[in-house]
Amino acid sequence: MNSADTASPQWAAGVCAGVHAAGSRHVVYVPDNPLSHVLRILADRYPDIQTTLATREEEAFGIAAGLYLGGVRPTVMLQSSGLGNALNALTSLLLPYQIPVLILISLRGDAGEWNAAQVPMGRAARAICDAIGVTHTTAESPETTAETVHLVGRTAFGTRMPGVCLLPRRLTVPLATEVTK
Amino acid sequence: MNRLDATRQLVAAIGHDPGTPIIASLGHPAYDLFAAGDRPANFYTWGSMGLASSIGLGLALARPALRVFVVDGDGSLLMNLGSLATMGWTRPENLVLIVWDNEGYGTTGGQETATAHGADLEAAARAMGLSALTVRVEKEFGAAIARARTTPGPWVIVAKVRESGPDTKPPLDCVFIKQRFMAAIGTPEGATRGASIG
Ligand SMILES: Cc1ncc(C[n+]2csc(CCOP(=O)(O)OP(=O)(O)O)c2C)c(N)n1
Ligand SMILES: [Mg+2]
Prior knowledge:
Chain A is of the alpha/beta class. Helix content of chain A is 51%, strand content 15%.
């Protein structure tokens, strides 16, 4: 992989294309390291997608709910650790009011993790989604990420339910480009 | 002033426009908004403690031509103080955050909040770069609403209120609240509109 590819990896370009194809024009986020690629591509190539940084993931979902009420299809991007910060917003706002949000979770704690503090929540992320009744789909490869994100978004906005697309570490930080940040 | 009287004053001042949204924090702030005058453009939250200001912020960003009012509680805002920082950064001119500061968690039995012990929500809002003021009587509150309606915000109005002890509750059906609200503010949800086939 040359340095241009590292700066703009295919999976991250796919995330942006999928968000756009799903009709989402506002991304509310708390950053993490892999998501920085998505943010850079959004800033460089998607002038019609607005981004808002939240101080906490729970707040991001509140802002997203308000955007939806105002007629915008919102995306929320977070790290799996932030799922823990956001649970009450999902269970007491998005689910009972049937407010759809395309949720992109950068997964930590899965294969390739080096930080023990990321492991318990990363390992639990899918089971937590199952327990609260939020569907989740995993982006499996750089080539299919755009389609997966698009489909998760289309399902969320079509059925008026939040939907999660998980971005696993083997996708976002393949061994050849491993960074310990 | 108590919270119900102040809520009535707010609804009397802005409620005549059927498209002006009011987002209410869970518990007594929502109950008093319902008691002051149920209207489709009221969005009653039944949970998500702390997020009323965030919902208002998102709506204000999505709909710059609407003036968005939020009635929050002091305990709820204390749970999501970061919201003030995000408001200070994004600065939607059309957002008015009213905080009913009864210095307690009225809904759960009146336990004191930190505002009963020196925490100053007006100062917190100012520290985040927001225009903020504290009001204690009807006359001050009326003047604050009038200013917030007509001059660029975002505004934070901390209203020191007494507990009102509401005896009614808003509608319980969350989807009904949402769909009625969205239709009232001019963004009816697609699924409620019907469409041609094909
Ligand atoms: C996450 C969460 N924690 C606690 C509660 C219980 N609870 C419901 S209303 C409330 C108090 C809200 O206080 P405030 O926002 O000041 O409003 P007030 O009742 O004083 O008008 C609490 C603690 C809850 N519903 N959700
Ligand atoms: Mg209170």
